[in-house]
Amino acid sequence: MPREASRGLPRHRSRYPAERYTRWMLRALTALLVLATLWLVMAFHLRGQWMFALLFLVLGASLAIVFGKRELMSHRYIYPALAGMGVFVIFPLVYTIGISFSNYSSSNLLSEERVRVQFLDQTYQAEGQAFDFQLIREGKRTRLYLEAEVAGEVRRLVSRPLALAVDGQPLTVEPARAIPPGEVLGIREVIARRDTLEALALVTPAGTELQLAGLRSFAPILPRFAENPDGSLTDLRDGTTLTPNHETGFFVTEDGERLTPGWPVAVGLDNYTKIFTDPDIRGPFLQIFVWTFVFAGLTVVFTLAVGFFLATLLQWDQLRGKAIYRTLLILPYAVPAFISILIFKGMFNQNYGEINLILENLFGISPDWFTDPAMARTMLLIVNTWLGYPYMLLLCMGLIQSIPRDLFEASAVDGGGPLTNMVRITLPLILKPLTPLLIAAFAFNFNNFVLITLLTGGSPDILGASTPAGTTDLLVSYTYRIAFQDAGQNFGLAAAIATLIFLLVVGLSVLNLRLSKVSV
């Protein structure tokens, strides 16, 4: 008889302390995670990032509910996956769609409050009030002597020893009747002490702050803008007024001139309208849109044709060394794609590449692979076919092996040859189960960003486009170039194009699911 039973104790009592400690540790960990998310909520809220604050508020609340209620214990195991999907998939998608309805760009990046602070922090040097200065050495100490002529009167000031200056605090200067005694240091010594002089802030008896304005002068540095009660700003240099325009997200002058930086504002459907109505954007967009579909479609056709043909050959009974051929043909699939792309980029080099060297020696031609739009697109299809055919080869080999051999024997009795078997038996039988995978391959190549970026970078460019657009760009690379390579970095327009891409990919996914006979 077990010892617990002999003492009259239940069997489960011996495990109770461990379970209790585990439960308390889980509660403590949950509390720490909730506190951490609440701290992030406050941090993002104070920085004005309300969307991120809302995200972590939802995460913290859901974490407390799921791990705080025993009734929801079964949901604890799937919660990390759902939280990760929310943070890394759903939230970026919603955030991107939100940006597409704004003018968010490199010119409209900060909040209105931060833009206002930047303007109020700007200073300018007052003209006609500069003091010429000299460095005077008195034994081991060095002073600044300043002199200026204002309204026919000479003003002289002298500072305390520079060694007494404290970082971050201004150094006072006092009136002087004449230049103090000592050695006047030359320009070489002034240049050697330039960093020290630039860090100085001198305060006159009248309270004016002076800063270094050159190698020979200190001048008053005054605030450039002053804030008015109605929210506008006044330029103290010339008295002009800057008014905040909440429709464009800029401070504008009386003449309508916009001053950067600005702040993001809602623009409704302007970004989507611009895609289809602005001729300088619509033309390149439609050209890239059509090329994206053509590129993805031809890639699927070419890779399927090559993969299917090679898979059929590998099923030939009279072929010897199938294992060696299979390994060699699948080898490109094992090499990282970016390495193969960079190798092909060197081989297609118009001046020194091996491909042009062979073509010139054999046929006397030297194509402009990177400058001619047609040749650049042909090069992309060639390289992408090389990268994608091993995947189709593996799929076709697996599907061909599932075809009953009786069909081929019956075809042989009727006089059918290898070509007849391939076209009338093999291809129709594998095409239906292969269709969802072909659609998935189409969606992948629809967003094949790596190939375009590493091989052509989108070049050659489309002439007359107001945005960075190339004849070999896909929609995804076009969006990237608008967001990160354009001088204006129009994130709102790029987000609108990304949203359209998302809708297209969703449509392809729904079609894929329906063809796979999965209920949506």
From TrEMBL:
Give the Pfam families listed for this entry.
BPD_transp_1 (PF00528), MalF_P2 (PF14785)
* Stored InterPro entries: MalF_N, MalF_P2, MalF_P2_sf, MetI-like, MetI-like_sf
Provide the GO biological process annotations: maltodextrin transmembrane transport
The record describes its membrane topology as:
Multi-pass membrane protein
Q: So where does this one cross the membrane? A: 21-44, 50-67, 79-101, 288-311, 323-344, 379-400, 434-455, 491-513
Q: Which UniProt keywords apply?
A: Cell inner membrane, Cell membrane, Membrane, Sugar transport, Transmembrane, Transmembrane helix, Transport
Which intervals hold domain ABC transmembrane type-1?
A: 289-512
Q: Which family does it belong to?
A: Belongs to the binding-protein-dependent transport system permease family. MalFG subfamily.
Query: Briefly, what is this protein's role?
Result: Part of the ABC transporter complex MalEFGK involved in maltose/maltodextrin import. Probably responsible for the translocation of the substrate across the membrane.
NCBIfam families of this UniProt entry?
Answer: PRK10999.1
- Report the protein name in the record: Maltose/maltodextrin transport system permease protein
* The species this protein was found in: Halomonas nitroreducens
What is the taxonomic lineage of the source species? Bacteria, Pseudomonadati, Pseudomonadota, Gammaproteobacteria, Oceanospirillales
